[in-house]
Write a structure and sequence with these properties.
heterotrimer; A alpha/beta (about 350); B mainly alpha (about 300); C alpha/beta (about 325); B: mainly alpha; MetI-like fold; globular; C: about 325 residues; alpha/beta
């Protein structure tokens, strides 16, 4: 336990070939509230191939969490409703499935881990109870077999002394351990899709590094497709193969990770990248440069402006931007963005 | 820079909104709450009708509730006597309406007194450890005596009159309010905004009044409605067992107590005050539940 | 520029854990365990560390929101360690605070103008109108519109609420502001606004900051010098350039290596520290980092290293340097 382990992070790789395991098409998750219709997710499409890590980036309220809850169909209906769209998982549209069928998929073929591992674990059940529950339910394993499987899973997520941990309660574990248990639970049934919603936000950086390494390892071992939802561009840059940027409920840009970070086409993506302080040599000068800001705040989702939703905060805004929402168009090979002015943006310098 | 901003500030007229605008604002909030919460509106309307009936009774041209007419005793309901008459020939409808005065007055007074006294004690107890240790043991002792027994004992001690009944019903309610206030204070004391106040130099007394007290008000108002409902029932109960308002005063408890003996001749003497009592308590509780829902911060709209 | 504003010496804060029927002290949380540093006028000292390292407790202890167990806190040369809450009042003008959670740190039932005016009311004898004038000036200073002065906190976004918190901290013209994770609850784009604002205000009012945060990149951006905390102790303290170029403590090294870099071409060999941070109730004997340190030797397990000057102006607590 005294030596640090050195893991090499996988270099970014081309998007794997093959049939997508999950396809989201024109998903619209609307909430009917007293103050009007809140368009939390508005016309989102993307697809996910086996073994791929798709990073979904955006700030609070951009719809990234509602997207994942929509895929799992964990949004409360009402007030939410799916105004349109399809979520195709292995060819079946999840939005058309009944409760019972959905229950068989959830936690079995598509699993999810959340930001706060403590609140998603039941405090009065032991780790072992919770780990075996899903396996018994979905895989129809006996108690004994489920127990073995649980121990295997704890081994997979590198929890030392799994035998002892199975008997412990969530509060006896550290934050990092809890997240490992959550991941073990999510992987218990060998899902083909893992949705990770801010999985490391509540964790310390040294623990975050451990969990990220673990997720990468799992992807390589089990070929699980991962949707990694985060607000942290650093995490995305280190983990994702492809990145989808969301703003005010819509996808504003999508590209391979290197392409996105080197040639961002949407002013919002650029704004995000410019606004994070970086650990670079230039920063070490005595007078650090001002961070570039994105002025203003996100528009409220029940009163979106008619044109581009980013227009009010955009440094490159033109009159016509306020008239119509820009279509998502390919700007470069394998790179789409929703911006009227992207061809006129200056050369990007990180 | 400072000068320029100050000048700009003066131009845009900085002042508090005038009181009438603030009043209109909060009335608007109440109207909005009622619109969103029809059960609360229902409770409020029923209570309003009750109050008008009780306190307006003297002006409705009804027979005097005290006027005896032995010859008309124990009549069935009729066009003149809607609920019939009691054993002294007094008009039961008039007596039931007038009886509401006592019930509502006792209910409101007890709720108000218990809340105010409990708030003061609870605030101090929540903030001062030494006071807390003494006061709370006393409150625990008080709470260990059944409320109704304590009230009966107190009225027996002081003699039966309306103010004594109010006091006797208030005392057992105080500990419950104190506990509520204290728990809110203890919770708030470690909140970040209280620390922020300490850090910017606010004195303890001011923290209590400006930061802590306003936050105890919403749960207190809700608690007050329950105390009110409870007191209405207890007042009737005290009168019923003969330890409440003096027997000559019409109150729902007194009327029902008298009706015991004449149950087979005119059961209306028990039925009508009982129904009025039940409706009133139900209305108060409905209103209280509605208040609780609309004062819940989770229900507050965000602008 | 070298005038010392705040001096902390051997500061300790231990929280007793009571338990059992007799309510005896059963254990102690060694939240802050012997911390020393100074903050100079006009300087930002960043304190960085992971959750449970005691950095927030450190801030609260210096503010005298909790009583220190041992050590000394000197503000402009005067010892405030043992002052009572009442005796602290005059010193509060010189030292203000910005909290992490801009929602919880504002009283939801007060109008924002009254929140910002509160410190003025505590010290100023000026009339209410004069105070409101001053509040208006503060609003302008932190970039809030004057029309919103009589609104309530819930009507503001997170970034705007943090501006309110900054306005309140500025109201008394303090010389030192202790900022406890002031931007970690904010979205990145808003975070940049608040950091810029804080840096602008520092230039304008010659403020000193004690900037407590867990985000290394943020801390290194705003700070002149940085102290790294681990399990209640400062393990390294130096100017930011040397900290990032030549980290001396293995923990600092690991911390720097763990921060994800927003550049997919620079995915690097990640050094992953094994294990978890030990509980501050039972910190390991000797060097607190010895359970996770890749270089630990015999000596690290029974002798705790002192914070020594390993290079001019560069302090580290490690036996191996």
């Amino acid at each position: 336990m005294t030596e640090a382990m050195t893991l090499s992070a996988a270099p970014p790789r081309p998007v794997p070939a093959g049939e997508p395991v999950l396809e989201v098409e024109d998903l619209r998750t609307y909430f009917d509230t007293r103050d009007g219709v809140v368009k939390a997710v508005d016309g989102l499409s993307f697809s996910l191939k086996p073994g791929e890590i798709l990073g979904v980036v955006g700030e609070s309220g951009c719809g990234k969490s509602i997207t994942s809850l929509s895929i799992m169909q964990l949004v409360p209906r009402p007030p939410a409703r799916f105004a349109s769209g399809a979520i195709r998982f292995r060819g079946r549209d999840l939005l058309k499935l009944g409760h019972e069928e959905m229950r068989r998929i959830r936690g079995n073929e598509i699993s999810m881990i959340f930001q706060d591992p403590m609140s998603s674990l039941n405090p009065v059940l032991t780790v072992g109870d919770q780990l075996t529950e899903a396996v018994i339910l979905h895989q129809k394993l006996g108690k004994r077999a489920a127990r073995d499987r649980a121990r295997e899973m704890l081994d997979l997520v590198h929890i030392p002394e799994p035998e002892r941990r199975l008997e412990e309660y969530p509060h006896q574990l550290s934050g990092g351990m809890r997240q490992r248990v959550m991941i073990a639970m999510a992987l218990g049934c060998d899902p083909s899709v893992l949705i990770a919603d801010e999985p490391t936000t509540a964790l310390d950086v040294t623990i975050q590094a451990q969990i990220l390494a673990l997720m990468e390892e799992i992807r390589d071992k089990l070929k699980t497709a991962i949707i990694l939802i985060t607000h942290d561009l650093g995490v995305v840059a280190e983990m994702a193969d492809r990145v989808l940027v969301m703003y005010a409920g819509r996808k504003v840009e999508e590209a391979d990770v290197v392409e996105l970070f080197e040639r961002p086409q949407h002013p919002y993506t650029r704004g995000l990248m410019a606004s994070i302080p970086r650990l670079t040599a230039a920063e070490m000068e005595t007078a650090p440069p001002r961070l570039s800001e994105i002025p203003g705040i996100v528009p409220s989702l029940n009163a979106l402006p008619p044109g581009c939703t980013f227009a009010d905060r955009c440094p490159h805004v033109q009159d016509h931007c306020r008239r119509g929402y820009p279509p998502l168009e390919p700007k470069r090979p394998g790179h789409v963005a929703a911006c009227w002015e992207s061809h006129r943006l200056p050369e990007w310098q990180p | 820079m400072v000068d320029r901003t100050t000048a700009a500030a003066t131009e845009t007229k900085i002042q508090d909104p005038p009181w009438h605008r603030r009043l209109v604002e909060s009335l608007g909030d109440l109207r909005e709450a009622l619109r969103r919460n029809p059960t609360m509106l229902f409770g409020l309307v029923v209570l309003g009708v009750m109050a008008v009936a009780a306190f307006g009774a003297p002006y409705f041209g009804l027979p005097d509730p005290m006027r005896q007419a032995p010859i008309e005793r124990l009549r069935d309901p009729s066009a003149e006597n809607w609920f019939g008459t009691d054993m002294y020939g007094r008009d039961l409808f008039s007596r039931v309406l007038h009886g509401g005065q006592i019930s509502l007055m006792v209910g409101l007074s007890v709720a108000f007194l218990a809340t105010v006294i409990g708030l003061a004690i609870g605030l101090v107890a929540g903030f001062n450890r030494r006071v807390d240790a003494i006061v709370m043991r006393f409150m625990d002792a008080l709470m260990s005596i059944p409320a109704i027994l304590l009230a009966i004992a107190l009225v027996a001690l002081w003699g039966s009159s309306v103010p004594n009944v109010i006091l006797a019903l208030t005392i057992p309610e105080v500990p419950r309010v104190v506990r509520l206030v204290r728990s809110v204070v203890l919770m708030l004391r470690d909140q970040v905004f209280v620390q922020a106040a300490i850090a910017c130099g606010t004195s303890t007394a001011r923290i209590l009044v400006r930061h802590i007290m306003p936050n105890t008000i919403p749960p207190l108002i809700v608690q007050a409605t329950y105390i009110c409902a409870q007191a209405v029932i207890f007042e009737a109960y005290l009168s019923f067992v003969g330890a409440g308002t003096p027997p000559e005063v019409p109150s729902w408890g007194n009327i029902m107590a008298e009706g015991r003996r004449f149950f087979f001749q005119n059961f209306g003497m028990i039925l009508y005050p009982g129904v009025f009592l039940a409706i009133t308590v139900f209305a108060i509780n409905t209103f209280g539940d509605g208040l609780r829902d609309s004062l819940d911060p989770r229900m507050q709209r965000r602008v | 520029m070298t005038e010392t504003l705040l001096e902390v010496e051997g500061l300790k804060k231990h929280f007793p854990i009571h338990g059992g029927l007799l309510n005896r002290e059963q254990a102690r949380v060694y939240a802050v365990d012997g911390v020393s540093f100074t903050v100079r006028r006009g300087e930002t000292l960043g304190i960085v560390g992971e959750s449970g390292c005691g950095k927030s407790t450190l801030g609260k202890t210096i503010l005298k929101l909790i009583e220190p167990t041992e050590g000394a806190i000197r503000l402009k040369g005067r010892d405030i360690t043992r002052l009572s809450r009442r005796e602290m009042l005059p010193h509060r003008r010189e030292m203000q605070v910005i909290f992490q959670d801009p929602y919880a740190s504002l009283n939801q039932r007060m109008r924002v103008q009254d929140i910002v005016a509160e410190p003025l009311g505590n010290f100023d004898t000026g009339s209410r109108a004069e105070r409101l004038e001053k509040v208006a000036a503060l609003f302008a200073k932190v970039g809030l519109r004057l029309e919103v002065m009589h609104r309530y906190p819930h009507e503001f976004s997170g970034g705007q609420r943090q501006r309110l918190g900054i306005a309140r901290a500025l109201a008394l013209n303090p010389e030192l502001i202790i900022a406890d994770e002031p931007v970690s609850a904010l979205d990145v784009s808003v975070q940049a606004q608040v950091i810029n604002l804080m840096m602008d205000l520092q230039g304008e009012f010659d403020l000193s900051y004690l900037f407590i945060a867990h985000d290394l990149a943020v801390v290194q951006h705003i700070s002149h010098r940085i102290g790294v905390m681990y399990l209640g102790r400062v393990v390294e303290l130096t100017d930011k350039a040397s900290l990032f170029r030549h980290p001396q403590h293995p923990y600092t090294e690991a911390l720097l290596a763990s921060v994800p870099v927003p550049d997919p071409r620079r995915r690097k060999k990640r050094t992953v520290l094994k294990g978890d941070v030990p509980s501050p109730v039972k910190p390991p004997k000797g060097c607190h980092f010895n359970t996770r340190c890749p270089y630990a030797v015999e000596r690290c397990f029974h002798e705790s290293p002192a914070l020594r000057e390993v290079a001019p102006g560069h302090w580290a607590a490690c036996h191996l340097r």
